[in-house]
Amino acid sequence: MGSDFDDKQKKIDKENGDCLCSRFEEAFSILGKKWNGVIIEALLIGDSLRFGEIANKIDGCSDRILTARLKELRDCDIVSRKTFDESSLIKYELTEKGRDLQPIMKSVHVWADKWCDGNK
Q1: What's the CA gap between 85 and 106, in Å, rounded?
Q2: Which of 81, 6, 4, 72 is closest to 36 using CA atoms?
Q3: Distance between CA 67 and CA 61 in Å, rounded?
């Protein structure tokens, strides 16, 4: 719980422009959530994928969590879910908003190649 002083300081900081932009915070609340980045990356590489194809590309993510993350990404209009008439086929793909993340994901790859050793 924050004190009155903390709340007043946050208000002053915001007025002075010292707080992070709310849009930046919103973006990181989406992209920073575990599994969302790798789901987006899988769809950038695979274009249009079935649930099982996405699951096979992401090691360690349970079906329950993958389902929840895909729904969240759909709710944010980053991923779309396509159904096909006269078929039980369902595919997921990135929306225009999701595809706009491609240069960001490329930058993350560059950063990871430089700074990460691949050992979680």
Answers
A1: 35
A2: 72
A3: 10
Q: How far apart are the first and last CA of the chain?
A: 32
pLDDT in tens, 66-109: 999 999 999 999 999 999 988 899 999 999 999 999 999 999 99
| Predicted structure pTM score | 0.80
pLDDT tens across 18-42, in order? 667 889 899 999 999 999 999 999 9
- The token pair that represents 1 in the structure block: 């719980």
With contact defined as beta carbons under 8 Å apart, do 58 and 66 qualify?
yes
Q: Are 40 and 78 in contact, with CB atoms under 8 Å apart? A: yes
Task: Report how far residue 18's alpha carbon sits from residue 48's, in angstroms, rounded to the nearest whole number.
Answer: 41
Which tokens belong to 35?
């599994």
**Are 81 and 70 within 8 A, CB to CB?**
yes
Euclidean distance between CA atoms 102 and 99, whole angstroms: 6
Residue among 40, 49, 58, 60 at smallest CA distance from 103: 40
